[in-house]
Design a protein that fits this description.
Blueprint lengths: L2 H13 L15 H7 L1 H17 L4 E4 L2 H16 L1 H11 L8 E4 H9 L1 H6 L9 E4 L9 H4 L11 H8 L3 E2 L18 H17 L4 E4 L2 H9 L1 H4 L7 E3 H8 L3 H4 L9 H6 L4
Parallel strand pairs: 1-2, 3-4, 3-5, 5-6
Helix pairs in contact: 1-13, 2-3, 3-4, 4-5, 6-9
């Protein structure tokens, strides 16, 4: 899952002059199951990976997964606010996390640390005329006390929109930017996902979007993959925002457009981008 996200992300970061490293030994953040079952475990899992990164001498972490981003930010915050929890986890792990790592979502890292001006410099194929519904989902910006998002943009974020605008695309104004897609219910209650994701796709169409851009593998699975069962007409291409960046940067092969279940290539050819 999400091979197209990985391929396009690495290509985009390389083009922007960044060289990401992935230290060996990182572990799963626990995601939804952990924090539903045990708060200490849900906190300890991300902290163990943060300690690994800290010991490697890293200072910034960019997370492509919205759930990982949420859990890492929450764990670091909980240690700051709960000295007793920090003491327990430190004793169990045998190392005290120094809170030295700045944690970003991939969207915010590119938007804040790289900047849209730098992204614009790499554009070789402006995506002029492409109307994009930028979908953030429920975890990238909320709650702002955890995510660090400017509260004025928590309910209507603009970071991805600004990135799309730098590519020459037209981000649309729409109503479902931060509405949940159904998330992990995709595994057990697909009916819930069909309803929630269906509303997101329908609103994007009503508002005139050509494509939906996402920044989360689970959101992509629900919005892209579940269209096969939902059978919306017409289908709506759903791409990772880094796929659109790769395409605009002249790296069509790295955009991995053939990996999407709803094939975006016919629409992109019609628009003159392929």
């Amino acid at each position: 899952m999400a091979e197209e996200f990985n391929t396009s992300t690495l290509a985009v970061l390389e083009e922007l002059g960044l060289h990401p490293v992935e230290p060996e030994g990182w572990i799963c953040c626990g995601s939804t199951p952990a924090h539903r079952v045990d708060h200490k475990i849900a906190t300890r899992l991300p902290i163990e990976s943060l300690i690994l990164y800290e010991q490697e001498g890293l200072s910034e972490l960019a997370l492509p997964c919205a759930s990982c981003f949420s859990r890492f930010r929450a764990a670091a915050r909980d240690l700051r606010l709960d000295p007793e929890l920090k003491k327990e986890i430190t004793q169990e792990i045998g190392y005290e996390y120094q809170d030295s790592i700045d944690i970003y979502s991939l969207v915010d890292f590119i938007h804040q640390r790289v900047g849209t001006d730098r992204a614009k410099e790499s554009v070789k194929l402006p995506l002029e005329g492409l109307k994009v519904a930028c979908y953030y989902g429920c975890l990238l910006t909320r709650p702002p006390a955890v995510t660090g998002t400017d509260p004025s943009e928590a309910e209507y974020p603009m970071a991805m929109d600004r990135i799309m605008k730098a590519l020459g695309a037209t981000p649309i104004d729409w109503d479902y930017k931060v509405c949940c897609c159904g998330a992990a219910h995709s595994l057990t209650r697909t009916d819930i996902v069909y309803e929630m994701s269906g509303k997101i796709l329908e609103n994007a169409k009503i508002r005139g979007a050509d494509v939906v851009a996402v920044a989360c593998p689970l959101c992509h699975m629900n919005l892209d993959g579940r269209q096969i069962q939902m059978k919306p007409r017409p289908e709506m291409p759903v791409l990772y925002f880094t796929q659109l960046m790769s395409l605009s940067f002249g790296m069509e092969d790295k955009a991995a457009l053939g990996k999407n279940l709803i094939d975006p290539r016919p629409l992109l050819r019609e628009k003159g981008f392929l």
